[in-house]
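[Discussion] Sanity-checking designs against the backbone

I'm trying to build intuition for which residues belong where. Below is a structure token string of 398 positions. I'd appreciate it if someone posts a full sequence so I can compare it with mine line by line.
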């Protein structure tokens, strides 16, 4: 442990508090890939493991797949030496150096998971268990938020189903979806939900316990540190998925006692039936106050919660932008090229498009330079309680 801490300490010293990371690719076997992650065509197909459909960013979370390597979903540090260290290991042995002394006293880890997901078909209708249900199987809840980048093919079904028709919740007709779970033969459960268009440059905030079937837009997702879920849609992308995914995060005794009804009990019905669901969950870009600069601009793209937050930084060609933050964060360089605090960065170049900025470096001025001909776009991801001043959606319930 002492050796790994020493390696992490030296890596932080070498790059002035910033860790360079390798991509963490994740396969899924229940959906085809969208093939928009920048990999060679032949790299997406992994046989029994399925297809590479996701890239996890600065991840300390293991992907919960039945088949796959032990480190699937976990980020590795990019070191000049031959040592191989997971970011999770680095946080475990040097959390105070990465997250800051005070923050690390009250937070066990980074507490969030950022990812890009890229599917060629809509994700099946599912939910992420609320904390009361997730903790019964030793897991965490999974509130999440989406951002759809602009200028990217939206895929064949760029609309996301959310919740249920309001009357179902108002009249407590919860059993209306039960036959679909028992029969497990089609996708007609979606007739009881409503779909909303995926629009580039916008997104949604989604608490746990809400049913959803995300559309095919390439999506940057930020969520709580968890991979907990229950799939409620049997037929998807032309095939019947395993019903095991319905009960993936349910205790054996609960399944035996209640069967499919245990899932009905895990749904947050009032939230699912909100007649103003769109107005109360839609995320527009919100300018970051006090950060007006001629070289670029910053917007909040993930907000409405203290569990995580995120910003989009755009720097104009030939210009620079300087900022400070309140705590540890990681970045994805989505497009353009330049320098981040002196480090070479370039969107689409897996050697230099992902960084983790330690707390001590984040609270001091950082300059991002665009030395290319196109806009430089950087997405910043933050964990719990770092940006308590992030915007909130004004509740719409008239």
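Best answer:
Here's mine. Compare freely.
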């Amino acid at each position: 442990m002492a050796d790994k801490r020493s390696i992490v300490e030296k890596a932080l010293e070498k790059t002035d508090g910033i860790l360079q990371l390798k991509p963490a690719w994740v396969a899924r076997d229940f959906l085809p890939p969208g093939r928009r992650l920048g990999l060679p065509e032949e790299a997406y197909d992994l046989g029994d493991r399925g297809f590479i459909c996701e890239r996890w960013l600065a991840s300390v979370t293991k992907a919960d797949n039945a088949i796959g390597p032990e480190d699937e979903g976990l980020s590795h540090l990019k070191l000049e030496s031959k040592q191989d260290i997971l970011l999770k290991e680095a946080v475990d042995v040097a959390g105070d150096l990465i997250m800051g002394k005070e923050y690390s006293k009250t937070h066990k880890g980074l507490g969030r998971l950022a990812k890009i997901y890229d599917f060629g078909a809509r994700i099946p209708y599912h939910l992420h268990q609320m904390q009361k249900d997730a903790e019964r199987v030793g897991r965490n809840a999974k509130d999440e938020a989406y951002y759809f980048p602009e200028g990217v093919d939206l895929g064949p079904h760029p609309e996301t189903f959310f919740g249920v028709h309001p009357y179902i919740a108002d009249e407590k007709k919860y059993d209306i979806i039960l036959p679909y779970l028992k029969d497990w033969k089609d996708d007609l459960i979606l007739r009881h939900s409503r779909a909303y268009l995926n629009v580039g440059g916008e997104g949604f905030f989604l608490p746990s316990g809400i049913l959803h079937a995300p559309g095919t837009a390439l999506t940057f997702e930020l969520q709580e540190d968890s991979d907990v879920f229950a799939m409620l849609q049997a037929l998807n992308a032309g095939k019947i998925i395993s019903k095991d995914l319905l009960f993936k995060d349910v205790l054996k005794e609960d399944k035996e006692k209640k069967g499919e009804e245990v899932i009905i009990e895990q749904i947050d019905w009032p939230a699912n039936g909100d007649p103003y669901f769109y107005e109360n969950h839609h995320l527009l870009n919100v300018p970051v106050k006090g950060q007006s600069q001629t070289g670029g601009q910053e917007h909040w793209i993930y907000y409405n919660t203290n569990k995580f937050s995120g910003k989009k930084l755009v720097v104009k060609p030939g210009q620079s932008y300087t900022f400070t933050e309140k705590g540890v964060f990681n970045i994805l360089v989505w497009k353009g090229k330049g320098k981040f605090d002196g480090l070479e960065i370039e969107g689409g170049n897996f050697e230099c498009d992902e960084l983790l900025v330690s707390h001590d470096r984040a609270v001091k001025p950082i300059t991002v330079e665009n030395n290319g001909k196109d806009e430089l776009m950087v997405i910043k991801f933050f964990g719990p309680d770092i940006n308590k001043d992030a915007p909130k959606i004004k509740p719409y319930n008239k």
